[in-house]
Amino acid sequence: MLKYTLRRVVSGTLVLGIVSAIVFAIFYILPSDPARLACGKSCTPELVARIQVALELDQTLPIQYGRFIKGIFVGRTYLENTDASRECGAPCLGYSYQTDLPVTELLMDRLPATLSIAVGASILWLLIGLSSGIISALRRGTWIDRTSQSFALAAASLQIYFVGLILQFIFVDKLAWLPMPGYTSPFDYPLDWAKQMVLPWLTLAFLLSAIYSRLTRSGMIETMGEDFVRTARAKGLSNRDINLKHVLRAAMTPIVTVFGLDLGSLLGGAVITEYVFNIPGLGKLSTEAVTNLDLPVVTGTVLFAAFFIITANILVDLLYSVLDPKVRLT
């Protein structure tokens, strides 16, 4: 297990290195003037010249990329040996010349809001999706099954911005049961934090639980026809033990795969959700960076999102051996 884990971590690191090379090429090699892009909309010739020096665009591409990677692991000093020098501690993902702050600091400042959305919503959609999927599989063909899956199909057809605005209109504008969505630190005001997060949680759970419900139902129905399930029934095991310990466990493999990708993507930035509810998370930061042409922040958010997705995939691979005894880690 330890050997497999180390191998997956090494392979994930290599993939992240390839992603960093692609991102560096897209943002710093393909553009004719990377300094002008990094400068943003409100730019002056003096600032462009300073960014050219800071990014060391006069150096060869291998040196530029090498220092870019070095900054991620050990940090970097921009405009070294000048009065305008800027320290960027590890992991240094760049320096925003529009906000005059390291990109990592901006990301860490927005990460708690995105974490609040992703973790809370994922718990809700798993509880709702798995529960409805299990009930539909066990009551296959009944009105409960048809109603549940019809509702899931309708929910999966909707969009986040539509559901989010409808829920906000009902619970905030009309009924006044909830405050306007936003972000407050859960360590300072936990109740306010929970109230402001309810609508984003419900919106994501409403849409994604539909997908998990259908996945759970189809996986369980398919597993119920397997030979090992018939053998368990022949041995006299109770339906409860068969359904929970054997059928559901075997059906969880594709669900874990999708969950890892969904959670990794959300941790990289719930762009539409944060934009709809005006929550200052990583997704909102990325849209602001694109709008303002803040190239270092765009680069940093892309690498940050890639890190979360790769990490989620590694954890999913490790969970396979726990959920499915047929999987062998070699």
Structure description:
With 330 residues, the protein is mostly helical. The chain folds into two domains: 31-102, no CATH class; 104-323, MetI-like fold. The protein is 73% helix and 3% strand. The chain contains 13 helices and four strands. The protein has helices at 2-29, 34-39, 45-54, 61-74, 103-138, 143-156, 160-174, 190-224, 227-234, 239-267, 271-277, 282-292, 295-323; strands at residues 76-78, 86-88, 95-96, 101-102. The strands form two sheets. A two-stranded antiparallel ribbon has the order 1-2. The protein has a two-stranded antiparallel sheet with strand order 3-4. A hairpin with a 7-residue loop joins strand 1 and strand 2 (86-88). The radius of gyration is 24 Å and the shape is globular.
Intertermini distance: 8 Å
Question: Would you identify the CATH architecture of the largest domain?
Answer: Orthogonal Bundle
How many β-strand stretches? 4
Shape: globular
Helicity range: over 70%
- The class by helix and strand makeup works out as mainly alpha
Low-pLDDT ranges: none
How many domain regions?
2
Rg is 24 Å
What is the CATH class name of the largest domain? Mainly Alpha
Biggest pleated sheet: 2 strands, antiparallel
CATH topology of the largest domain: MetI-like fold
Mean pLDDT: 83
Topology as a string of helices (H) and strands (E): HHHHEEEEHHHHHHHHH
